[in-house]
Design goal:
The complex is a heterodimer of chains A (536) and B (712). Chain A has 536 residues and is of the alpha+beta class. Chain A has 2 domains: 225 residues, no CATH class; 176 residues, no CATH class. In chain A, helix 2 runs antiparallel to helix 7, helix 6 crosses helix 7 and helix 9 packs across helix 11. Chain B is an alpha+beta fold. The two termini of chain B are 32 Å apart. Classes of the chains: A alpha+beta (536), B alpha+beta (712). At the A-B interface, helix 2, helix 3, helix 7, helix 8 and helix 9 of A face helix 4, helix 8 and helix 14 of B.
Chain lengths: 536, 712
């Protein structure tokens, strides 16, 4: 710590601010370009991508603020994996590196990472990198059933996609043969590469304008100042070890997540020792993905305002036992990793609720629910549509949780009118689930009830992703747990982990879970009780 | 264009000699000030008045200002031939939640439609964010059995007794305005129309807004949000517009009153009262129109209109002389500048971005030890420290005084006393925290706020698939010309065009607006499966509807320009692109032209098209426009001076890292055709233009100043 304060600033408070703002606007511009040119609806609508700029060593400098949590800290690590395989001496202008290795990337094959070394006057000054969810990657698309990455889909090792500006035509040919939507997959790949070129062009113009020969000073300042702010935030927390443990529905058996966070001075350590061993289906979260969602939780608590960069995470160490569901080994699959990863920010909150109860929220009715509906409609055409639904979020020390809101992901619902245009079902109702949020001084957000009824004479096949049907979202500080979610088919409770068929005229009711409450329900203010009456 | 303008001017002078004045009047109600401008189309004379906005009854301030102009300038009220009005009144009523007690009548099973909204947050790291609360609380929603299916088929008849009982409950709870929103009414409005008729019959005093009238487009939440907001401001619009019309008549101005719409068009009062939600953004629209107009004067095809005032800056893109129009926006953002934190409104609106950067933006040093400017603002009360009204925090305006950009002796034309020492004192904490000298810190504030605006502009333009360097920057507003040069340099722009009377140019925009009506309908089809007669029929229906409204303004719809547009996408995509279509009438032969229009628009926006994919139409739109005035606006009092140099003063520029003796010009005395080098400061009553070293600028015949930016 002392060494950071001793360093005289390399850039003044204005120059650094202006350069930093400009660098963020460069990745924002690249991110806007990628959203525009991408075919993937996940990229367009849920921002399931990121673009970053790193320094010459692969240390992340700037990232667009709108990137989803899955990519915090994963992309710079990917760049360093690239560097391990292709040291700077083996890179030439026009090279583009690529991989979708789950352990070096983001935990599943669907995310493709690319990076481009940026040369200025013959020297590598940094890397532009991008990761995006591909429209398809072969294999058993998004299924929790995959037992290993070979079933999961097409694997791309760390390799050069472009060599001195020339694309590897053989690779493209093989890729196209292995995916279901070759035009879209290849198109999105080039959209990612265009975004890298945009960063490269803008960065070089900026560096020339300011007569810079390297990014070392600006990267160093950004990292040091962010690190200092993070250390200050950690130092403000009382020292100690804070642990927390909870279970998730899992597939066949529940999964136990155990976390211990140790705060010591201005450093913090996270340890997931005691967490369940890896499972042989695609539920596991690779270390990189575990890291991303854990850092997201910590960032919410410690430094929500500081722009994302790696300096901020320097005072933090994370350990997850190898062979656990949070750090599984090759070749087991992590295809549906969000089913565990989305719990991790709350694991952080649960542990820190004793240290800083006023900076966290109680358990949320997440991960997000979805149903994939497949069949043949009344006009004889095939349909396959995935519909998303959210539960309620956890309450905090100063307000109720949000009803039916995506957290920690951020995925919009499909409007009812659009659902009915696409899928031959009637949405009979879509309404809040009264009293499903856990009680408390502040209550958890309510989940919702969605009732769908088939309108066709042929069966509709349904695959669900649904969590918290057995293990409710916990309350904090005396608040109560939210209601568990439930799946009801034709009036009978059903297991969401199994495939189901909706018969002609049949109904399916999805009841998404409520969020946990915060504080003793006895302390609930009179005006809030009065407003509760509206939801009865 | 410049020559044409000159010609008009000469023509005007001849007419003026014959005597009769012919005034257009613009009335622009803002949050702090109400601007009134009288422009004589015969002589080019313009008369401005700024009065404080009277929030209790804004029509009082308007009428007071109008009377002042009439009395002090000897204007004959009978010589006013039209009055155009823009107001932030309805937006403010929405932000402050001061609209009518509003209820919602909707399809059974969907009472939580507004509450559930989009299930999405506008910010991911802040666990304490507040989402905007719905305009209609849950207990003021009535559900009615009855169902229209996705193809417009009736699945279950509307339960009229339940409708009446539900509405009665709402009325009992004090509801005075009601929105009616049923599922799939965009394809079959019969249930909504039946409900409106029944409610009208049973509750004649209730104000009613039906979604099939206000926003007949697919996606129930966005349609409901728009309809409910319309219902919320409708009683207010009715009262206010009736009162204003009556009071104008009392001043003996008998000319018709027009309202400025969010899309930069005009409409008559009856239409404004029927669908007031279209007026939410009428104030900012005027500024963009002014930018488009003055840009045309300098023959510039691509303009970034940049309006910077006391608390915010607004940027809009003008291509080929027309401001870019969007078909949805967000009202009343919970977190002022955060996308997604507002209530969606699907109306046509001039597209602009708003940034929390203005003269009153406060500078501070943040937790990272870096200088930060905004989004907090000192507003007009207490205002910047230099105003001497008790403000003690350093603001952008204070920095502009310290740097010599603004003259403490000539602020607001010398009508306002400036305390420069207070400004310097306010900067002391920043100097201390950063170790910078006073001018360095002041430049830092100026530079950081400019970078914030340039960064926002860069991303905004990039989102449209365009390159900012193709644009000229056109500043308006009190602070726009002070910051424009440096913002342009940061964006790599070659030119800045500064219009005459830049500080009040936005109210002049009102006088240039055409009458405009936009209508939309959902028409879901794959392009290759289009029922062409049906498509043509729906286009004709919405065009006829739009033409009726134009006819209601008293203007001749025969000269109208009709544009057909459609929201289109590749099947499977979740978003649409709004595409200008070839002219009708349509038949099966139109297919290729429409496909080509879509593909061209897709390439322009996204750079490329997919190799395969079928094209789909979602909504169709008609835009009908007719020029409201054949005359050009040419301002008198510019371009005919004797030189204009009024002195020199030290002004700080980063190029020299110090104060440089800089020429100061009087804008009103600069002769047209003259060319000078920067650095320079050019002053007019309402604003000051700062030009950096290395630049050159010319005075054009239109009165515009064209500045060539020096690129290092």
């Amino acid at each position: 710590m002392a060494k950071h304060e001793a360093n005289p600033p390399r850039l003044d408070a204005v120059t650094l601010r202006v350069l930093w703002t400009r660098l963020i606007s460069i990745v924002n511009e690249a991110s806007a370009a990628l959203v525009r040119t991408s075919f993937s609806t996940l990229v367009r609508e849920t921002y399931d991508f990121s673009v970053i700029l790193t320094d010459e060593n692969g240390q992340g400098i700037v990232q667009p603020p709108a990137s989803i949590p899955a990519f915090i800290g994963t992309l710079p690590a990917t760049v360093r994996h690239f560097l391990a395989e292709f040291p700077v001496s083996e890179l030439v202008p026009g090279d583009v590196l690529i991989t979708n290795d789950p352990w070096m990337g983001t935990g599943h094959l669907a995310d493709v990472s690319v990076a481009k070394p940026i040369f200025l006057d013959g020297k590598v000054v940094g890397f532009a990198a991008s990761v995006a969810h591909a429209p398809d990657m072969g294999g058993r698309t998004g299924s929790t059933e995959s037992r290993d990455v070979f079933e999961e889909g097409f694997q791309i090792p760390v390799m050069k996609l472009c060599n001195a500006g020339t694309p590897d035509a053989t690779f493209i040919k093989v890729l196209r043969r292995n995916v279901r939507a070759p035009d879209e997959v290849e198109g999105d790949l080039w959209a990612q590469v265009s975004a890298l070129e945009l960063i490269e062009n803008r960065l070089i113009a900026l560096m020339r304008h300011y007569h810079m020969t390297s990014l070392r000073d600006v990267a160093g300042e950004i990292h040091d100042r962010s690190e200092r702010a993070m250390r200050n935030a950690i130092r403000d927390m009382p020292d100690g070890t804070y642990d927390y443990e909870f279970a998730t529905d899992g597939l066949d058996d529940p999964v136990k997540i155990r976390i211990a966070i140790t705060v010591k001075g201005d450093e913090l350590e996270v340890d997931f020792a005691g967490t369940s061993p890896q499972v042989d289906k695609a539920l596991n979260s690779a270390f990189c993905y575990t890291y991303a969602y854990t850092m997201f939780g910590l960032k919410c608590v410690l430094s929500p305002e500081i722009p994302n960069n790696e300096g901020a995470f320097r005072p933090i160490r994370m350990r997850a036992p190898e062979g656990s569901v949070l750090n599984h080994r090759f070749p087991t699959s992590g295809c549906s990793r969000s089913m565990l990863g989305h719990y991790l920010p709350f694991a952080v909150f649960g542990a820190l609720s004793r240290a800083v109860p006023n900076r966290i929220i109680a358990g949320s009715g997440s991960p997000i629910w979805s149903v994939l509906m497949r069949g043949v409609n009344e006009r004889g055409a095939q349909f396959a549509n995935k519909l998303f639904y959210n539960g309620g979020t956890g309450a905090s020390h100063r307000r109720d949780g949000m009803n039916a809101t995506s957290w920690p992901s951020n995925i919009s619902l499909t409007p009812t009118e659009v659902v009915e245009q696409l899928v031959p079902v009637r949405v009979v109702h879509k309404k809040l689930r009264p009293n499903s949020g856990g009680e408390g001084q502040y209550r958890g957000g309510h989940g919702q009830d969605i009732l769908l009824q088939s309108k066709i004479d042929t069966p509709i096949f349904m695959v669900f992703l649904a969590e918290r049907t057995k293990h409710a979202a916990p309350g904090i500080a005396g608040g109560q747990a939210g209601d568990c979610g439930a799946l009801v088919i034709d009036g009978v409770p059903a297991d969401p982990k199994k495939q189901h068929v909706l018969k002609p005229g049949g109904t399916v009711l999805m009841r998404t879970p409520g969020g946990g409450g915060f504080g003793d329900p006895k302390g609930r203010a009179a005006h809030l009780r009065a407003s509760d009456a509206k939801y009865a | 264009m410049a020559d044409a303008g000159q010609l008009k001017c000469d023509e005007a002078v001849t007419k003026a000699a014959k005597g009769k004045a012919n005034f257009s009047v613009g009335l622009d109600i803002g949050g702090t000030f109400t601007d009134i401008v009288f422009y004589d189309q015969v002589s080019g004379r313009h008369l401005n008045r700024k009065v404080l906005t009277t929030h209790e009854d804004p029509s009082l301030g308007v009428i007071e200002g109008v009377r002042q102009v009439i009395d002090s300038e000897g204007v004959d009220p009978a010589s006013v031939d039209r009055v155009i009005h823009a107001t932030t009144l309805f937006t403010n009523a929405l932000i402050e939640r001061k609209g009518a007690e509003t209820g919602l009548v909707t399809t059974e099973g969907f009472r939580d439609l507004l509450e559930i909204a989009r299930e999405r947050k506008y910010e991911i790291y802040d666990v304490f964010i507040e989402m905007p609360s719905p305009i209609v609380p849950r207990n003021l929603v009535a559900e009615v059995p009855g169902r229209i299916g996705p193809r417009g088929e009736e699945e279950r008849p509307l339960d009229l007794p339940a409708l009446v009982a539900g509405t009665e409950q709402l009325v009992k709870q004090g509801v005075t305005s009601v929105a009616v929103v049923f599922l799939h009414s965009y394809v079959n409005p019969s249930h909504e129309r039946a409900a409106v008729a029944e409610i009208q019959r049973r509750f004649p005093s209730l104000s009613i807004s039906a979604s099939c009238e206000v926003a007949p487009e697919i996606r129930e939440y966005e349609r409901a949000s728009t309809t409910v907001i319309n219902a919320y401001v409708k009683p207010l619009a009715q009262n206010y517009l009736d009162r204003l019309a009556a009071q104008l008549a009392a001043t003996k101005i008998l000319a018709p009153l027009f309202m400025m719409l969010s899309n930069g068009g005009l409409t008559h009062v009856a239409e404004a009262k029927r669908v007031p939600v279209q007026l939410l953004e009428s104030g900012p629209a005027a500024g963009a129109l002014a930018g488009a107009f003055f840009g045309r004067g300098s023959k510039v095809d691509h303009v970034l209109a940049f309006d910077m005032g006391g608390t915010t800056a607004k940027l809009s893109v003008v291509d080929d002389g027309e401001p870019v129009v969007a078909y949805r926006f967000e009202a009343a953002r919970e977190k002022r500048f955060a996308e997604g934190s507002g209530l969606p409104v699907i109306i046509s609106v001039i597209e602009l971005i708003e940034i929390g950067a203005g003269g009153g933006s406060i500078a501070s040093v943040d937790e990272l030890g870096l200088l930060k400017v905004g989004p907090r603002s000192a507003g007009s009360q207490p205002g910047p420290a230099a105003y001497g009204r008790g403000g003690q925090l350093p603001t952008v305006t204070d920095a502009d005084f310290i740097l010599g950009y603004l003259d403490p002796g000539f602020f607001a034309g010398g009508t306002m006393k400036i305390d420069l020492d207070a400004a310097k004192k306010a900067f002391e904490p920043i100097c201390k925290a950063t170790g910078m000298s006073l001018p360095e810190a002041a430049w830092g504030v100026h530079d950081v706020v400019n970078e914030n605006m340039a960064s926002a502009a860069r991303v905004h333009v990039a989102e449209r698939g365009k390159d900012p360097r193709d644009y000229a920057l056109l500043p308006t507003g009190g602070a726009g010309p002070v910051h424009a040069y440096s913002v342009a340099a940061k964006l790599g722009l070659k030119r800045v065009i500064c219009p005459p009377a830049a500080g009040v140019a936005s109210s002049l925009g009102l006088l240039m607006a055409p009458a405009r009506v936009d209508r939309a309908a959902t028409f879901l089809t794959l392009l290759d499966e289009t029922d062409w007669p049906a498509l043509e029929g729906v286009f004709r229906k919405i065009e006829a509807d739009a033409r009726d409204v134009i006819a209601g303004t008293g203007l001749d719809p025969k000269g109208a320009r009709i544009d057909r547009l459609a929201d289109m996408r590749y099947a499977g995509q979740g978003f649409e692109l709004v595409v200008f279509l070839p002219e009708g009438p349509y038949s099966a032969k139109s297919r290729d032209g429409i496909a080509a229009a879509f593909e061209a628009a897709y390439r322009a926006t996204f750079g490329r098209t997919p190799r395969s994919g079928s094209i789909e139409i979602v909504n169709i739109r008609a835009c009908v426009r007719v020029a409201a005035s054949a005359k050009n606006v040419v301002l008198k009092g510019f371009g005919s001076g004797d030189g204009g140099l009024k002195g020199r003063r030290p002004v700080w520029f980063p190029e020299t890292k110090g104060y440089t003796e800089t020429a100061v010009y009087d804008r009103y005395r600069l002769p047209s055709g003259v060319e000078h080098d920067g650095p320079a400061v050019i002053e007019e009553r309402e604003s000051t233009l700062v030009i950096g070293p290395g630049a050159t600028f010319r005075v054009e015949a239109t009165g515009n100043l064209a500045i060539d930016v020096f690129q290092a």
